[in-house]
Each structure stands twice: as structure tokens, then as C-alpha cells.
Amino acid sequence: MPGRVTQAEIARRAGVSQTTASFVLAGRREEMRISEQVEARVLRAAREAGYRPNVVSRNLRTGTTHTVALVSDTIATTSFAGHLIWGALDAARERDHLLLIAETEGDPELERELIEAMQDRRVDGIVLASMYTRKISVPKALLDGRSVLLNAEPSGRSTISSVLPDEVEAGRTAARVVLDAGHREGIYLIGVDPKSGKGPADSLAAVQRLQGIKEVMSAAKVPLAGGVMRPDWQPAEGYEATRKLLKRAVPRALICFNDRLAVGTYQALQENAVKVPDEVSVVSFDDEPVASWLRPQLTTIAIPHYELGHKAIEVLLDDDAKLPNHKSKAYRVLMPLRERDSVRSVETKGAVPR
Q1: Rounded CA separation 228/249 (Å)
Q2: Chain centroid offset of residue 340 CA
Q3: Are strands 337-338 and 299-302 parallel, antiparallel or unpaired?
């Protein structure tokens, strides 16, 4: 196997000094006042010889490795991970960085080991990502060097910034969809109890989505008729919650707190011969693939996976996160509305306050 082509070989082929070749290959032509003609000769020689830079040597000179890490709990093996990782990969590539990915499977000890392993490899920064939006205790190891939380907030005071979906605004959007369709009564929630605010344990999405819904409903002076709390937002839970609700009420609009709940809601409504959207409108969150498979297709507020991954790397590398006196910041990414066929307009009086 032939050895690696050296800068000395490139210099010989281009007819320049090794120092000149080194400056050109390091992108310092203008700084060192090297002519464009000489640069072209050096780069042509490098291409023809199949030259590849010695990354280890460059890292030792610059003190950077041009690598960043994304350490997650279970994101990498979930169905929606593709777009989130895609966004992070694109942002890293735009900044001439390689992205390393590791998964902890929710094991705190493995998390610590993986963070330390990335730091041992001298990555330029670490993104610690969560499967669902929640508060976490920031690992002490993250306090050394650049780091960002993705889809998570620190549970206490911290200097580490977070990148999160804007769940409060998503709740506002869901409420406006229902009100803009003319609904003023019979509006129920599936997944969260509007009175107690209870939802799945540790779920920031439940709390923040409810906050946004209540803000808009209150401004419109439209009361929520009620809701059914479920501890686990899965189709079976949505089915049971909707069956329970139909025994005591006639809903006109349902806001499901995620699309999996909505799948169960659709099943229960169908069993009871309640038509969507003719008799009841349904709005949801997350925009999982199933949202467009349901019939009628489900109106939902999407989690912007690609944008979240991209923003996390952007903040990690561009935000000067480790400058003196840095304060943590929450970067919230807008969750877009996907309007489909599960909401029907009804006659109404008055307009919805904005």
C-alpha cells in the first residue's frame, strides 16, 4: 500500500518551497501574499497526487479537532431521529466539522462514560440530546468545554444553553386552529387534565402545550370543557381516554397532546360512529408519519426535527458559549402547523383575539 503523499512531494511537483506549499494547503495564500498562479499550481499538484491533509498534525497545531459529538438517550434508534441527525450533520459540515454520535440508552453511568470518551478525543463541543422535552440534571463533565442541551432544559442554575421546540407557541397554535374553525363549546383535551395540569411525569411538552392553549382560550373568553389525563401518550391510552369521554360528553373539538393519542382517539370515535371532522374536529401535535396516514388526514403541529438538530450545532459552535460571564439561554424553534382534513369550520360569532 503506497504511503501518504507529503507536503514535500506536493512542493516538488509544483516547483515551490515546502513552506509555500504548506501555506497554500492551509488556506493562507492571501495572508502570506502568495500569488494566485502559485496557489493554482500547488492545488493542481495536490489533486493529481491524491494529497490528503494530516488531520492529527493540523489538530496539534490549531488546538482543535474539527469534530463535535451528539450524545443522546434514545434518539439515535428512534424513527424520527433521521431528520434531527440530518440537521446536525448539515450544520457540522457547513462549519467543516465531523459529527460523532453516541447513545446512552438512558443509563446515567454510560452517559458519563460517553461524555468523557468524547472529551478524551478532544471534540470541539458536545450536544447532549433528549428523546422528549424534559428537565435534566446537567452532568458535571459537560461543564468542561463547549456544550449545549438539545430538547432538554437544566433542572437548576446552569451556564449551559438549551435548544428546544417552542411548545408554548405550539399550544397557542392548536387553540387558534380550533377557535378559528368557530368552536366555542365542547372543546376537550386528550392526554392532559386542564384543571390540574397533570400529564406524563417529567414532560415539559405537556405543561408548555397546556400553557399555550390556556392563554389563547382565556384571551378569547372560551372555557375548556374538560379533558382526560393519560400517563402514557400511546394509541391505547388515546382510545381509552376518548371512550371514557364519550360516555359523559358530546365533544365538538378534541386537542390530542400527540399523534399517537390521536390514533386511539380516531378508533374510539369510529367505533361510536362519530365522524371526523363532520361531528368533531381533531387537532394534535408532533406530525409523526401516522398523521398523514390517518383518514381523514390529521391536522397537527410538527416538531421541527431538522431545524432542532441544525440549531443545536449552530449554537454550539457559533454562540461563543464559553465566553466569560456567559449566561445560559433557551433557544426555541418554531413548531409549524400542518393543516390537513381533521378540522371543520362551523358558524361562529365574533373573532378570535390574537
Answers
A1: 12
A2: 23
A3: antiparallel
Residue 263 burial (CB count, 10 A): 22
DSSP lists the bridge partners of residue 94 as none
CA neighbor of 68 nearest in space, from 141, 149, 127: 127
**Cα separation, 10 vs 25, whole angstroms:** 10
CATH superfamily of 7-53: lambda repressor-like DNA-binding domains (1.10.260.40)
pTM: predicted TM-score of the whole model, two decimal places = 0.79
d(CA 138, CA 322): 16
At 131 the pLDDT is 83
CA distance linking residue 178 with residue 323, whole number of Å: 45
Residue spans of the domains in the chain: they are 7-53, 67-165+304-333, 167-303
CA 158 vs. chain centroid, Å, equals 20
Task: Count Cα neighbours of 4 within 13 Å in the Cβ-side half-sphere.
Answer: 6
- Cα 153 from Cα 138, distance rounded (Å): 9
Question: Cell 431528520 belongs to which residue?
Answer: 83
- As beta bridge partners, residue 191 has 229
Spatial contact of 242 and 190, defined as CB atoms under 8 Å apart: yes
d(CA 274, CA 291): 19
* Grid cell listed for 19: 513552506
What are the backbone angles phi and psi of residue 248, rounded to the nearest 5°?
-125, -5
Say yes or no to pLDDT of 352 above 50. Answer: no
CATH superfamily, domain 67-165+304-333, is Response regulator (3.40.50.2300)
Average pLDDT, the chain: 87
Q: Which three cell numbers stand for residue 138?
A: 446537567
**DSSP letters spanning 13-63:** HHTS-HHHHHHHHTT-TTTTT--HHHHHHHHHHHHHHT----HHHHHHHHS
Alpha helices in the chain (DSSP H): 7-14, 18-25, 36-49, 55-62, 81-94, 108-120, 167-180, 204-219, 235-246, 259-271, 290-293, 305-318
Give yes or no on whether 67-165+304-333 and 167-303 have one common fold: yes
pLDDT at residue 165 tops 60: yes
Percent of the residues in the chain that have a pLDDT greater than 70, as a whole number: 90
Domain 167-303 sits in CATH at 3.40.50.2300
